[in-house]
Design brief:
This protein has a single domain, classed as Rossmann fold, CATH 3.40.50. About 50% of the residues lie in helices and about 10% in strands. The strands form 2 sheets. A 5-stranded parallel β-sheet has the order 4-3-5-6-7, with helices on both faces.
Length: about 300
């Protein structure tokens, strides 16, 4: 009698465990961006972190190293599952004629290419029905065909300097063929000076290009946030000025490091005619919105 345990069920078990550990690490490092707080409280929280940066440097460094280690332990085994058919891999519990009691295991084929996504909650997939399977990096990986190993490093609440310290080391160890970077909205919301953001992004892109000169690196800018419900009560004149400043900084860094720009400001104007592209939280994309974002990135790659 044979008992079959699917590869998908094993991956699902590991995903549930990773979700719990991932959330615990986020509590150690940074307050998530998806919680509903006022701008004043968000700025106050950031100021407290800055004021105690020197006192808490050791704890924060340990927390970041801990999360990096967990990413390597849990993300890498899961990355192949994003683009694999649920019935592709099985673990049959059978007996072998040459080795009684052995459990033959069918290994997944080697990846044709490795795709790494750097970003925050919108890269993680917050706002979709199932962030683990319906984020735009997962949708993009499907569009790229079979044999794609996806490593989604999206961390809710992350900003450019934290991604530089926490996500970049993981990327450098994966030898990627494709890298996408979408980091700016949290920095803008947190009122990070444009010069600081530009410096951190430039350092991130320079190190990525130096470590993976043959990889295709795509950097997305900030879309028109005035079309997003959360920002519609803001001073739109000031908001557009801030977005333009950030996007100009992104354009300069992209040109300097010879990488590709994904111009969401102009390519995602369909938001105005498709409110269903934004989730119920009024901030993050919905499942449909992520599918459209994946198409924008795919067209940029094509």
């Amino acid at each position: 009698m044979y008992k079959w345990f699917t590869y998908r069920s094993t991956v699902s078990w590991l995903r549930r465990r990773f979700t719990h550990v991932h959330s615990f690490c986020l509590l150690l490092i940074r307050k998530p961006a998806c919680v509903s707080t006022s701008d004043a409280s968000r700025v106050g929280f950031r100021n407290k972190i800055l004021a105690h940066r020197h006192d808490n440097r050791s704890l924060l460094s340990c927390s970041r190293l801990f999360l990096i280690a967990l990413c390597l332990l849990f993300l890498l085994p899961l990355c192949c599952s994003a683009c694999a058919s649920p019935s592709t891999y099985r673990l049959p519990f059978t007996t072998s004629s040459s080795t009684p009691g052995a459990i033959p295991m069918q290994q997944p084929p080697p990846a044709r290419l490795t795709y790494v996504a750097i970003g925050a909650s919108d890269t993680f997939g917050i706002g979709s029905n199932d962030p683990l399977t319906q984020s735009w990096p997962v949708d993009l990986a499907h569009k790229l065909g079979t044999g794609v190993r996806l490593i989604n490093l999206g961390v809710p609440g992350i900003d450019a300097p934290t991604a530089l310290q926490m996500e970049l080391p993981v990327v450098l160890d994966t030898h990627p063929n494709i890298i996408t970077v979408w980091l700016a909205v949290n920095d803008l919301v947190d009122k990070v000076p444009v010069a600081e953001y530009q410096r951190d992004l430039d350092q991130l892109l320079a190190r990525l290009y130096s470590a993976a000169p043959r990889a295709r690196i795509l950097v997305a800018n900030i879309p028109d946030l005035s079309l997003v419900p959360r920002f519609q009560k803001s001073n739109l004149h000031v908001l557009h000025a801030e977005i333009d400043s950030y996007n100009q900084a992104i354009s300069v860094d992209v040109a300097r490091e010879h990488v590709m720009l994904v111009d969401l400001t102009h390519l995602w104007q369909t938001l105005a005619d498709h409110p269903e592209y934004i989730s119920d939280d009024g901030f993050h994309p919905s499942t449909q919105g992520y599918a459209q974002l994946a198409e924008v990135f795919y067209q940029a790659l094509s």
